[in-house]
Amino acid sequence: MTSYLTTRVVRMLITVLAVVLVTFFLTQIAFSNPARNLAPPNASAETIQAIARAYGIDRPWPEQLFGYFVKGPDIQGTPTGLLNWPPSLGYSYQEQRPVTELLLEKIPATLSLAAGAFVLWIGFSVLFGVLAARRQGGVLDKITSAFSYTFLSLPTFVTGMLLIYVLFYQLSLAGFRFFPSSGYVPITESVGEWARHLILPWLTLALAEIAIFQRVIRSSVLEVVGQDYIRTAKAKGLPDRRVYFGHALSGALNPVLTLGGIELAAIIGGAVITEQVFGIDGIGRLAVSAASSGDAPVVIGITLFSAMVFVVATFAVDLITYARSSRQ
Amino acid sequence: MTVLARRTSERRPRPSRGQRGRSDGGRSRLRAFLRDRAAIAGFVLIGLVVLGAVAAPLVAAIVGHGPLEQLADEALSDTGLPISGGNGFLLGADANGRDVFVRTLYGAQVSLFVGLTSTTIALVLGTAVGLVAGYVGGRTDTVLSSFTDIALAFPFLITALSVVTLNRGPQGDDLVDPAWVVIGIVALFSWTYFARLVRGLVIELKSRAFIQAAVGSGAGRTRIILTEILPNVLPAAVIYWAVQLPANIIGEASLSFLGVGIKAPTPSWGTMIANAQQTGLYQYQPWLLLAPAISLFITILGFNLVSTQARRRFDPRSSGR
Amino acid sequence: MPLFQLDAFSVSFADPGLPQRHRFALDTVHELSYSVEPGETVAIVGESGSGKSVSLLAATGLLDGDIRTRGRVLFRDHDLLSLPQASRRRILGKEIGFVFQDPQSNLHPFMTIGAQIEEVLTEHTSLNRTARRRRVLELLGEVGIPRPEEKAQHHPGHLSGGQRQRVMIAMAIALNPALIIADEPTTALDVSVQAGILDLLTRLQAEHGTAIVFVSHDLAVVSRIADRVVVLKGGRLVETGTRDELYENPREQYTRDLLEASRARIRPRAARDGIRIGPPLLEVTGLTKHYRRGRRTTTAIEGLDFTVGEGEIVGVVGESGSGKSTVGTIVAGLQTADAGSITLAGHPYPVGGRHRAGTTAPHLAPELRRSVQLVFQDPFASLNPRRTVFQSIAAPLEAHGWSRAAVRERVAEVARRTVVDEVLLERYPVALSGGQKQRIAIARALALGPRLVVADEPLAALDVTTQVEIIELILSLQQTLGTAFLFISHDLGVVASIAQRVIVLGPDGVAEIGRTEQVFTEPRSEYTGSLLAAIPRLDDSPAEASR
């Protein structure tokens, strides 16, 4: 167990490190002259040079790389380098603020979005997946199947815009103004407003995931239902509820967990689009504006953040699967 | 000893539907698949989209509006808002006075081209990596698998946003056709799924007796991979190609929506929807949103229907239900 | 009044190939009638496809899928088929207990065994938690599980096959049911374990007066336990009678054939055939193999010496974990031994060294590689589903660079030798029966004209009558081609009827090596003796067994 854990953790670190390295070089090449973009359009070469010096982007790349991972010069009074405590992710050119601070400010919105969608997604998927499997070919199975096809075939941004069009625009025209079309209210300000602003984004994110997941749960439950131990459960005279939600679901969990880990991480990607559609000021919008303005430290920071989410999610799933299989 | 020439049927005591279906030959399964109502519906939808893509230049010629032509006089009302129909504009016009119907048809070309090409590249790349990693195993597998893990850990959209800027020339112009950049990005982010799938299948196959028999008969590694393993892996990979295709079409649309995929004025459904959102004009001219949205929906639904049914019928790992 | 009774009971599966209206036209079980009195043991006997399991599962509502049943199934005075689901559930688990074939797949892998037994009590009684827990431990003790408190916390994966089957039995008897339906309860177990399970069942029956319906393909097992026997074939009743009537005076030819096939299997191969055994072909001395998993090392085989003569069949018997398959794969050149020396017709095998098991074989001299081939246990897995029979048989020839014409000729030749019909050559494995597949696997092994064929449990997945066919085939190949076989099996009966010499592998290494007749009639080791005693034979009487 310990040796498994160690190798697993080492591999996680290597993965994150590799992702950051690749992104570092990618931004080095892609954002070829960030200082020019920061400078006013008619700035002189000296001004651009001065700006480059101020952000430490005039130095050769090995020095910058070292500065990023270990310790770099202070920029605008902000220490840089991952080996500082607390680790610093650098300084955003665009926002003129430390990246760490910027991320911490934007994460709650994205997290609220992801967490709410996750709850909806898991709850409905399990419920409908198992029920659809219980009466294969029944009415509920047919309805959930049509539902899946529909939302599997709509890109997130289309779902989001259609929801806005119907639930915000058309309802507003009809005089019913409950759903806001955009914006985000922190949970610390008002829980009700927080939820009200997030309902449509949650739905947008969750619908597509439920579409996939409900089917995955259904088919892995069906797979398990053919197993001998389900017959044993029935032979014991257990009611359907126990047979399906107890025996079958717990037996069917492995593929569900695996996909769950991957999708949980993918939700960050989905958040980029959802935030864009609903005007939520989170990580995703920050990423879009940073990438288009060539704000390398922010791009690297966000990539690092989402790679960590991915790695931790898959690690958690592996741990659970491992624990389950070692019990077997 | 008496020789009993009787043959008993080999049916196992609990034939589940999947097992029974599987004992038929491949040809009868193909026939059943082609008769399946959901699959037929999918083929019809895909046929419609292909037809639209092929007929786009023809329609443009008939109505007399090119996909990039701005016809402000005919297509914009006095207040400067786009019309939502009439005047020879079947689905109205956009803010620049371009024919939405013609642009939607041209959008199908982009969607299909990017989707098909990127998924095929991903299939070839992923299958090759999966075969080698799964069969050779050991250190090779560790290296290739960590490679796959790393590729999976990249946030698709965020990285894609920066990759696209690579294509920006010194004067802000594109170095290569943005369609190829999108194809490259989408393929880069989807080969991993094929690699994982194939690797898993190969590892499973490797322990099967017929591979052991081939090893025991003295066949070499390459021969075993090509003649014994590949034919068993390919059908699943091809089915997965059909599963991944709609996801990749969504990928292109999402990139275009975020403004880093196909660039305006080239018509792409993603850019058309982004345009509708940014201008907010879809509240007056709903076709701005609906035309590309419905087209995307039909395309993806068509491929989803076909791939789900194909998987149900042909994938040995799916339960056949 | 009978306790349990089938009355003109028929089961049919929907056949997708037939028109909708007639899709239930073919009966898998046809108008089957028999009854079980309280306290009685009735055995249902037949080969696979006879409907012996299907009929009982359908009768108790445990068969899922698109099926239709006709007739009546009476338990006491309830017709199980027309009973509402809720009432039927009150009977299942409480008044009818089930024991299924493979305890590994029949227990939930992620629940502790204690929880799985407790569930029956939770569902059908109003006992509180402590009382239930106490009863679970009591039950585990009753079925002979040592240290019940500790074992109750275990998952099925940590138990041996025999213990898992005991857990299944504990679950079945938890509420003292009037009837236990046991579907091939000993088939998946080693011989010595099998005897223990049969003893347990008979003991419990004597103590509680439970009736048992015992489904089996094995007439020898049945003869130990049954009061009455029902013989099925193709879903129909062949004949029924008391154990003695049926075994001594079978009325039907089919029953006679089954009995004969069963007896033949435990008749040691005498010097009945004048096969001349040549000088030693395979010489093995000091064969040793360890497996390393993490930091633990287990010894698969240590210091094994034996020889196989030209044209000789040598049997290797042992229970699971005895290392018999390891011996097979080493001799077949799929992995190397850690120590010892092996030569085949003077060519030495490589010993030690590292190579990756499974994907690459150790490097054997081409001459050696051609001389030894392998036949596997499961004919379903040993043929590539995507290649035709011809391609499968031809594969080893192509790998050794034969010309196309030579390949064609050679395939036809081995197909004739192994009685594989020419029409089958263009088919894919899905269209073949188990027996046909195993013939093809043997044909493939013979393609290169090996001098020794290693057959690893080649009969384990086959029906009795098909087993007999394959045994006949191997014997005829030995006679006509002079091929030697190393025949690996867990089944002493099969080995007795085919091998000239036998190697018995015990849990602590080699128990005995000797001529078949001697090993089976005057075993020199205690382990062989106990194995032989555990084989159910047709002449055991139920009275003796239950004593």
TrEMBL record, chain A:
Enumerate the UniProt keywords alphabetically: Cell membrane, Membrane, Transmembrane, Transmembrane helix, Transport
Transmembrane stretches, by residue range? 12-31, 111-134, 146-168, 194-213, 256-278, 298-323
> Where does this one sit in the cell?
Cell membrane
- Residues annotated as coiled-coil are none
The membrane topology noted for this protein in its Swiss-Prot or TrEMBL record is:
Multi-pass membrane protein
Q: Which GO terms describe its cellular component?
A: plasma membrane
Extract the PANTHER family matched here: ABC TRANSPORTER PERMEASE PROTEIN (PTHR43163:SF9), DIPEPTIDE TRANSPORT SYSTEM PERMEASE PROTEIN DPPB-RELATED (PTHR43163)
Its recorded name reads ABC transporter permease
Automatic annotation (TrEMBL), chain B:
- All residue ranges annotated as the ABC transmembrane type-1 domain in the record: 108-307
Q: Name one GO cellular component term.
A: plasma membrane
Question: What Pfam family does this protein match (any one)?
Answer: OppC_N
Where is this protein found? Cell membrane
One GO biological-process annotation of the entry reads: transmembrane transport
Q: What is its main location?
A: membrane
- SUPFAM superfamilies assigned: MetI-like
Instruction: List the InterPro entries.
Output: BP-dependent_transpt_permease, MetI-like, MetI-like_sf, OppC_N
Superkingdom field: Bacteria
User: Which UniProt keywords are given for this protein, alphabetically ordered?
Assistant: Cell membrane, Membrane, Transmembrane, Transmembrane helix, Transport
Its placement in the membrane is given as: Multi-pass membrane protein
- Region (Disordered) location: 1-26
Where does the chain cross the membrane? 38-63, 112-136, 143-166, 178-198, 224-243, 287-307
Q: Which PANTHER family match?
A: D,D-DIPEPTIDE TRANSPORT SYSTEM PERMEASE PROTEIN DDPC-RELATED, OLIGOPEPTIDE TRANSPORT SYSTEM PERMEASE PROTEIN APPC
Q: Which family does it belong to?
A: Belongs to the binding-protein-dependent transport system permease family.
The protein's name is: ABC transporter permease
UniProtKB/TrEMBL annotation, chain C:
InterPro entries given in the database record: AAA+_ATPase, ABC_transp_ATP-bind, ABC_transporter-like_ATP-bd, ABC_transporter-like_CS, Oligopep_ABC_C, P-loop_NTPase
Q: Which UniProt keywords apply?
A: ATP-binding, Nucleotide-binding, Transport
Q: Name one Pfam family in it.
A: oligo_HPY
- Biological processes, Gene Ontology terms: peptide transport; transmembrane transport
Q: Which CDD domains match?
A: ABC_NikE_OppD_transporters
Which residue numbers delimit the ABC transporter domain?
Answer: 6-259, 282-532
The molecular function terms in GO held by this entry are: ATP binding; ATP hydrolysis activity
Q: Which NCBIfam families match?
A: PRK10419.1 (NF007739), PRK11308.1 (NF008453)
PANTHER family hit by this protein: D,D-DIPEPTIDE TRANSPORT ATP-BINDING PROTEIN DDPF-RELATED (PTHR43776:SF7), TRANSPORT ATP-BINDING PROTEIN (PTHR43776)
| Protein family | Belongs to the ABC transporter superfamily.
User: What is the protein name given in its UniProt record?
Assistant: ABC transporter ATP-binding protein
Which classification does the entry list for the species? Bacteria, Bacillati, Actinomycetota, Actinomycetes, Micrococcales
